[in-house]
Amino acid sequence: MKMLKNIGIRLTISHLSHYRTTYIFVVILLTSFLIRLTYLLDYQGSPFFHSPIVDAQFHDNWAQDIVEGDIFSLKQGEVLYKAPLYPYFMAFVYWIFGHNFFILRTIQILIGSLSCSILFLIGLHYTKRRYAFIGAGAVVTEDIPDYALVYGNPARIKGWMCECGIKLEFNGDFAECKVCGKEYKMMGENKVKPER
Ligand SMILES: [Zn+2]
């Protein structure tokens, strides 16, 4: 009976965290896209927006050559001076939408924003959701235990933090988060574990 109950709770948690992951993914994507879009709209006023120079000009010319039929980049000489993937990507966009810098840059900022959200997923997957709180400017010289709050130079343990980012107040060996209600137990001098 106890086993069944545990399984039930686990399913609920994983169900919730799936929604939460999707929610954070979308929020990061939209936020980073809006920041880039604001910059892009502002940058439209610059003469460099419409007349690329140096590397941008080089890539633009190369991409236009590809669209005009130089499929194998023969005009670039026998050995390519720069990596070819980017000009081919630009050529593909020009081929579909025409020679339009605004559309090209919008697609680029969308890819840039996606990379932020994907980085979040990578972090989620590889960091196993462990938590610690490190003060700004702290000089960390040794391993930090889970849930520890550290700061200073060198960084020292000054307290313990809940997963939700609230400082824990221990009463003996136990602490309950004032905000989310999650419970923790002090297992030794430098070890705090969440109660199941
Ligand atoms: Zn909490």
Describe this structure in words.
The protein is α+β, with helices and mostly antiparallel strands and 196 residues long. It has 2 domains: 2-126, no CATH class; 133-194, no CATH class. The chain is 51% helix and 13% strand. The protein is built from 5 helices and 7 strands; from the N terminus they run αααααβββββββ. It has helices at 2-43, 47-50, 54-67, 85-97, 101-126; strands at 133-134, 148-151, 156-160, 170-171, 174-176, 183-188, 191-194. The strands form 2 sheets. It has a 4-stranded antiparallel beta sheet with strand order 4-5-6-7, with no helix packed on it. A 3-stranded mixed beta sheet has the order 1-2-3, with no helix packed on it. A hairpin with a 6-residue loop joins strand 5 and strand 6 (183-188). Helix 3 (54-67) packs across helix 4. The longest helix has 42 residues, at 2-43. It is elongated and about 75 Å long. The two termini are 17 Å apart. Residues 1-15 have low confidence and may be disordered. It binds zinc ion. Zinc ion is lined by residues 162, 164, 166, 177, 179-180, 182.
